[in-house]
């Protein structure tokens, strides 16, 4: 009988130890504080070193496609990879108040015992109180990053639109493009660096996630190229270029057909750095 009791105690002990280690090694947690930081990857060309994140050296060789696949976050929560071991991993974040989710790429460390999300995804899952209190309460889970997507395509239809940025003072709101709110803080130098386009191609960032990105467009008939800034969405499964660059790569048939057939590829913009801000209102 005594031996049985010892055996039972041993089994219980092993179970408890295993439970502790299982809890410590989990890659998820609930009710964690998520602050925001103005990493602003589009304005910084998705350049980790330019933004100055902790993972920049570790991830310096990753291509633009990889760096821009997901919005960015700093990670310093209790459960999951710690410090630089988290660099490049993906985390699914859920606002506990409204259930909104976003998948983020870990590119930075922090010291707040939770997450420091880029402002754009912070706003994406906002329940209306995020900026008031300076944070969200979230659940998170470290998840696999999907690496299947590509940021280029061939034989895509490119229509034209008369955005005419110079006549509109390169003012996004005046033209009424979909990205005007996303990019409202950008300088005139930044807004006028490249001609504009709407983007709704099948491959690459979708909808407002493409705002501010740069795209190299090649006319398949004559090989002429132009680099454009994405400032608008569309619904044509291709591009809607401003008339000026549309004419710049014209092969003589663009206006007759009403479109070009182009190849496109997302590329570095080469923008100058912008200032970052970080929210640090502590939870009550």
What does this structure look like?
It is a single chain. The chain is of the alpha/beta class. It has 2 domains: 28-143, Beta Barrel (Barwin-like endoglucanases), CATH 2.40.40; 152-278, Barwin-like endoglucanases (Beta Barrel), CATH 2.40.40. The protein contains 9 helices and 12 strands. The protein has helices at 2-24, 48-51, 64-67, 119-124, 130-133, 172-175, 188-191, 243-248, 254-257; strands at 28-37, 71-75, 90-95, 101-108, 115-118, 136-143, 152-161, 195-199, 214-219, 225-232, 239-242, 260-267. The strands form 2 sheets. The chain has a 6-stranded mixed β-barrel with strand order 1-5-2-4-3-6. Strands 7-11-8-10-9-12 form a 6-stranded mixed beta barrel. Strand 3 and strand 4 form a beta hairpin. The longest helix has 23 residues, at 2-24. It is elongated and about 60 Å long. The termini are far apart. Mean pLDDT is 85; it is low at 1-25, 272-278 and 280-284. Residues 1-22 form the signal peptide. One of its GO terms (molecular function) is RNA nuclease activity.
Please outline the helices and strands.
Blueprint: H1 2-24, E1 28-37, H2 48-51, H3 64-67, E2 71-75, E3 90-95, E4 101-108, E5 115-118, H4 119-124, H5 130-133, E6 136-143, E7 152-161, H6 172-175, H7 188-191, E8 195-199, E9 214-219, E10 225-232, E11 239-242, H8 243-248, H9 254-257, E12 260-267
Parallel strand pairs: 1-5, 2-4, 7-11, 8-10
Antiparallel strand pairs: 1-6, 2-5, 3-4, 3-6, 7-12, 8-11, 9-10, 9-12
């Amino acid at each position: 009988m005594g031996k049985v009791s010892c055996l039972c105690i041993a089994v219980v002990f092993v179970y408890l130890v295993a439970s502790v280690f299982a809890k410590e090694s989990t890659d998820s947690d609930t009710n964690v504080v998520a602050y925001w930081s103005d990493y602003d990857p589009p304005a910084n060309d998705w350049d980790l070193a330019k933004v100055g994140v902790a993972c920049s050296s570790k991830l310096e060789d990753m291509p633009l496609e990889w760096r821009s696949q997901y919005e960015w976050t700093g990670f310093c929560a209790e459960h999951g990879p710690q410090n630089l071991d988290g660099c490049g991993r993906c985390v699914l974040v859920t606002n506990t108040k409204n259930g909104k989710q976003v998948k983020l790429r870990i590119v930075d460390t922090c010291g707040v015992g939770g997450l420091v999300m880029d402002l754009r995804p912070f706003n994406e899952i906002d329940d209306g109180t995020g900026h008031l209190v300076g944070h969200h309460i979230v659940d998170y889970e470290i998840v696999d990053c999907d690496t299947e997507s590509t940021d280029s395509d061939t034989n895509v239809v490119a229509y034209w639109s008369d955005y005419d940025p110079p006549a509109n003072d390169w003012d996004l709101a005046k033209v009424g493009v979909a990205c005007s709110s996303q990019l409202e803080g950008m300088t005139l130098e930044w807004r006028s660096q490249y001609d504009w386009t709407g983007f709704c191609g099948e491959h690459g960032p979708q909808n407002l996630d493409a705002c501010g990105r740069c795209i190299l467009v090649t006319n398949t008939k004559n090989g002429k190229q132009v680099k454009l800034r994405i400032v608008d969405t569309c619904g044509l499964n291709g591009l809607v270029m401003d008339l000026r660059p549309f004419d710049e790569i014209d092969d003589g048939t663009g206006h007759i057909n009403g479109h070009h057939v182009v190849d496109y590829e997302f590329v570095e913009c080469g923008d100058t750095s912008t200032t970052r801000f970080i929210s640090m209102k502590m939870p009550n």
